Amino acid sequence: MIHDNRDMPPLPGFPPGLHFGFEMRGKRILYCYIRKNACSAFKRMITVRSPERAKLDGFSSRLKFLRRFHGVRDIRAEDYDHTIFVHRDPVERLVSVWRNKFVQRDGHDDVFASYAAVTGRDPARASFAEFLEVYMAHPLPELNLHLHPQATCLAAIRYSDALPLRDLHDHMVPIIGPKPAERFFRQPTNASAAPAGAAPEEARGRASEELWRHWTQTGTMPPPAAFLGPDDAALIRGIYAADCRMLARLQPAPALTPTTAAPA
């Protein structure tokens, strides 16, 4: 899909998005960094393939390394063969944040700190229902960066490749080639199994501490749909109306021809 973001006014109150430039297969690629949209896979790919990768140990995170050696501030789409961002359904994305940060507790410190500061409540005792109805009721710019709309990360450019998170591997093959796509995008990050018999009402109202303990003991958690009440999807889409508008504007990309398809 293609997305022309040049005529979309920036949403007030949000920090500017991050863009990283890199080269693969002789192509110059610009990537828009959006949290919870396969960003871990992209961070790993860019750092592993970076000419500066020997310096990675001198940084406390891959993101800081990318900011230093691959960050792009003066964005000119015409300088790149591909301009990429990954998008996903806002309902899926919000539930993914909950499961990853509150249940798995993977890199959760900043999210927990934000939750406590914004709500005055203990994030360890929070349920998904409280997370949605209390924390997410605050203005989005006040929330942790993982909860900012996808649309706020985009620059005022035309993106040649607006890629859905679902089947991302298949969409990356024509861009970076089959071998790198297999290595970096075949296995989704932060995937987890679901225990049998997890009723939606039980999952939605259960404290994150309880779910986390179950996760550490069994390696399983309720599936995403189990956290959603009957009206939650509509509520989330209303919160992320900007993302819904962005997704509605996506346009089909030209079909690949034998001359543009990636080599085997």
Global outline: globular
- SSE string, helices as H and strands as E: EEEHHEHHHEEHHHHHH
Q: Give the averaged pLDDT, no decimals.
A: 92
Largest sheet, spatial ordering of strands: 2-3-4-6
Compute the separation of the termini in Å: 23 Å
Characterise the protein shown here.
The chain is an alpha/beta fold and 264 residues long. It has one domain. 38% of the residues lie in helices and 11% in strands. The protein has eleven helices and six strands. It has helices spanning 39-49, 62-69, 90-103, 109-119, 128-133, 168-176, 178-185, 200-205, 208-218, 232-239, 241-248, and strands spanning 3-4, 18-24, 27-33, 82-87, 158-159, 161-164. The strands form two sheets. It has a four-stranded mixed beta sheet, with helices on one face. A two-stranded antiparallel sheet has the order 1-5. A hairpin with a 2-residue loop joins strand 2 (18-24) and strand 3 (27-33). Helix 1 packs across helix 2, helix 6 (168-176) runs antiparallel to helix 7 (178-185) and helix 10 crosses helix 11. The two termini are 23 Å apart.
List keywords for this structure.
264 residues; alpha/beta; two-stranded antiparallel ribbon; globular; disordered C terminus
Please write out the topology.
Elements: E1 3-4, E2 18-24, E3 27-33, H1 39-49, H2 62-69, E4 82-87, H3 90-103, H4 109-119, H5 128-133, E5 158-159, E6 161-164, H6 168-176, H7 178-185, H8 200-205, H9 208-218, H10 232-239, H11 241-248
Parallel strand pairs: 3-4, 4-6
Antiparallel strand pairs: 1-5, 2-3
Helix pairs in contact: 1-2, 6-7, 10-11
